[in-house]
Amino acid sequence: MAWNEPGSGDKDPWGNRGNGGPPDLDEVVRNMQRKLGGIFGGKGKTGGGNSSGQGGFGLGVILAIAGIIWLLSGIYIVDPAERGVVLRFGQYVTSTMPGPHWHLPYPIERVEVVNVEEIRTAELGYRSTGSRTGSTILSESLMLTKDENIIDLKVAVQYRVQDAAMYLFNVRGPDLILRQMMESAVRETVGRSKMDFVLTEGRSVVANSTEQLLQSMLDAHNTGLLITSVNMQDVQPPEQVQSAFADVVKAREDEVRQKNQAEAYSNDILPKARGQAFRIVQEAEAYKSQITAKAEGDASRFTQVVREYSKAPEITIERLYLDAMESVYSNSQKVMVDVEKGGNNVLYLPLDRMRSGSSSPARIDLDSLNYPGTDSSTKSSSSSSRDDVRSRGGR
Question: For residue 276, what pLDDT is reported?
Fold first, then answer.
């Protein structure tokens, strides 16, 4: 038997019987309609003019609260690294600086907030991945140089938003436009350079030229972007000829190393040679001065001797003789023996002890010597002979 057939009672499909179940849905809707009608000026069951007045006042309060909330929704805050762009019905109105601001709420005006301090990166020839090297894109990295050689070049450009309004409205997809302009600028710069220059010392030059050219292109299209740096991540010849280029680079490095070693050797030898030559010249000059001074001194002394000789020849001759003998005897060992003329006695002299002494003249006292076979008279005669020699020497 169906639940709505006659005789089924107040049963329903949910098992409710009589008034013990939940209220009827239609009744709930009717009660809600009556309440809303009382608020907005309708007549309820009680009826009367006071209900209409209270309903109008409640509607005004609700509208006032809704208006205040709508106006407060126009308050917004711009962070220090951001700029706010105000649009009125989709048209640019103004740009706001960091801080709290207010605009006419939606749908009249809306605000686009752009981060102008964020450093963004655009990559050419590769894409950064979790690996160290990243993935290479040959369609972007292979470029033709001025001397018609192919190189594999990877470039990273860092940039930021300079003008938020230009960035949002002047071009469509400014980041994509920048990537396309970057590829064009890099290819133009590489196409004006030779391969050896790009592979060796020209990396910084290519990066600087690319930065200037790319910035001029962005400014010409009013993209509102500012290039902060251009970095050459890697530049290599194509993979098929990298081994040959590695040999060439190694040969160039060896050439530079050999030149540096030669220059170092030259810088070490030349100062020594110059110093030695200067020392020899100085020694020659000193020897020249010494010889010249000595010759001049000898000539002056000879002139003085000649002058004195002309005044007293005998005295000068004797003086020269004594000087010569003094010079000769001063450097030789001498033994002076005072023996009487005509004597035939044999003298015993300790020459070994006398030669081991000083170079000064050794004076021997004949009185202290032993003359074999002689007596005191002989000694006295010898002493007188010695005094005679001394007297002649003193003259």
Answer: 92
| Cis bond before residue 107 (omega within 30° of 0) | yes
**DSSP, res 2:** -
Q: What would the mean pLDDT of 231-243 be, rounded to a whole number? A: 82
Nearest alpha carbon to residue 235 among 180, 193, 175, 177: 193
Q: Indicate the SS3 state at residue 8.
A: coil
Verdict on whether the full-model pTM lies above 0.70: no
Q: What CA–CA distance (Å, rounded) separates 305 from 311?
A: 10
Cβ contact 86:94 at 8 Å: yes
Question: Chain-wide mean pLDDT for the chain?
Answer: 76
Looking at residue 356, the DSSP 8-state letter turns out to be T
Residue 339 gets the label, from left (phi > 0), alpha (psi -120 to 50) or beta, of: beta
Residues 102-137 have pLDDT tens digits of 877 888 888 888 888 888 999 988 888 765 556 888
For the CA atoms of 214, 219, 222, 225, what is the dihedral angle to 10 degrees? 60
The vertex-242 CA angle with 241 and 248, nearest 5°, equals: 95
pLDDT band at residue 392 under the 50/70/90 scheme: very low
DSSP 251-315: HHHHHHHHHHHHHHHHHHHHHHHHHHHHHHHHHHHHHHHHHHHHHHHHHHHHHHHHHHHHH-HHH
Q: Where are the beta strands (DSSP E) in 57-149?
A: 75-78, 82-88, 91-96, 99-102, 109-115, 120-124, 126-127, 135-136, 142-144
Residue 180: name the closest of 150, 221, 128 by CA: 221
Residue 62 burial (CB count, 10 A): 12
Tell me the C-alpha to C-alpha distance, in Å, between residue 158 and each of 42, 80, 122, 179, 229: 67, 21, 6, 11, 5
Say whether pLDDT at 72 is over 90: no
User: What is the rounded CA–CA span in Å between residue 307 and residue 223?
Assistant: 110
8 A C-beta contact, residue 195 and residue 236: no
177 contact partners, CB below 8 Å, separation of at least 6: 171, 221, 223
The tokens for 261 are 């070693």
